[in-house]
Amino acid sequence: MSRINLRFSKIFIIAILLLFTGILASCGENNSSTETGNIAQSLSGNNTEGFKRADSKRVFEFPDDFGPHPEFQTEWWYYTGNMSAKDGREFGYQLTFFRRALSPIKTKRESNWAASEIYFAHFALTDIESGHFYSNEKWSRGAAGLAGSQSDPFKVWIDNWSVSGKGEIVQLSAQDDEVSIDLTLKSKTTVVLQGDKGLSQKSGEPGNASYYFSQTRLKTSGTITVGENTLDVSGLSWLDREWSTSALGENQEGWDWFSIQLDDGREIMLYQLRLKGGGVDPYSSGSLIEKDGSVKHLKADDFEIKSTDTWKSPETGSVYPSKWEISIPNYNLNLTVIPLLKNQELNLSFTYWEGAVRVTGDGLSGKGYVELTGY
């Protein structure tokens, strides 16, 4: 999936209710509600009046576009990666920040606690060797220094979770009760504009699109702490950066999103939008990034994603695909994708599966991340 703002429907409803009961005044307080619903359907009725829409191509400006776009309703900074310690121990991580505007107009009020937007974040760590998956969330109003984003110098934060940096290097930091990460990321490739030169259409309705770019090969080093053990790690990360004011169509149920980093230097991004009652939406899309950095845009009929196994969550009863065969015939690519750990389900304000995977096929190897929603 491109980081489609459907995921915000549940978050937005919860956050608004809590905002008006005063709970958002406490910095970084966690929410562990496991109530779930039809995310796509609930978002379709959100009020977008007054916000700008992603309805035409634009000129991207870097590094400014790493910072916030307050004229749009929704945006996110989405980091995932696969790390290895010197002893061979493997980890996957996810650190995501979301910004959601409450109104297109910032109201001037005397209180430092007054907010016109909320921030929300997910932090997850997959410990392959132990078989443990850790996940948690934070949310806060974008006021009083509790949470926010800025472009110069670049920073996004909620409490003690943050992304910050300047130029090609950024720092990721997140601490939870049991695990933490402290990572340095440096881009090894140019920015990839997804979709049609950065305009990623999600359905046939005008404006149901996002501005979307990625950094697909971020050389990463730093430390991961699990319990009392702190390990030096290194590996590769991936950034998806999107902003929009839009929703998916009412006939779209969820999505399967893949980011793949092949050991031969190529990367692949695919998202498959699933329709209610079965089938794949023609607005599914993807890209193949060649070793020289050139980008091949992939339409829905350029690739096929076939699920060959499933996993049932013992917590929620949801049944997710758990192994895939991916075919991209025009580029002679046939890949098998397998989770490094079957249980990588985030059971937070809403529930979805997102986790580290291994990729093989036709003499190829690599790793990546997969996200599954609507199951």
Fold blueprint:
Elements: H1 8-19, H2 39-43, E1 74-85, E2 90-101, E3 117-127, E4 132-141, E5 147-151, E6 154-158, E7 161-166, E8 169-175, E9 179-187, E10 192-193, E11 199-201, E12 209-226, E13 229-244, E14 252-262, E15 267-275, E16 285-289, E17 295-299, E18 304-312, E19 319-328, E20 333-339, E21 345-347, E22 351-361, E23 364-372
Antiparallel strand pairs: 1-2, 1-13, 2-3, 3-4, 5-6, 6-7, 7-8, 8-9, 9-12, 10-12, 11-12, 12-13, 14-15, 14-23, 15-16, 16-17, 18-19, 19-20, 20-22, 21-22, 22-23
Number of strands: 23
The quaternary state of the protein chains shown equals single chain
Could you tell me the mean pLDDT?
Answer: 86
Q: What is the structural class?
A: mainly beta
Proportion of residues in extended strands = over 45%
Tally of discrete structural domains: 1
User: What is the string of helix and strand elements?
Assistant: HHEEEEEEEEEEEEEEEEEEEEEEE
Please give the count of helices.
2
**Which radius of gyration do the C-alpha atoms yield?**
19 Å
End-to-end Cα distance: 14 Å
User: Architecture, CATH level 2?
Assistant: Beta Barrel
Low-confidence stretches: 1-45
Broad shape: globular
Question: What features would you describe in this structure?
Answer:
The protein is mainly beta and 375 residues long. The chain has helices at 8-19, 39-43; strands spanning 74-85, 90-101, 117-127, 132-141, 147-151, 154-158, 161-166, 169-175, 179-187, 192-193, 199-201, 209-226, 229-244, 252-262, 267-275, 285-289, 295-299, 304-312, 319-328, 333-339, 345-347, 351-361, 364-372. The strands form two sheets. Strands 1, 2, 3, 4, 5, 6, 7, 8, 9, 10, 11, 12 and 13 form a 13-stranded antiparallel sheet that branches. Strands 14, 15, 16, 17, 18, 19, 20, 21, 22 and 23 form a ten-stranded antiparallel sheet that branches. Residues 1-45 have low confidence and may be disordered.
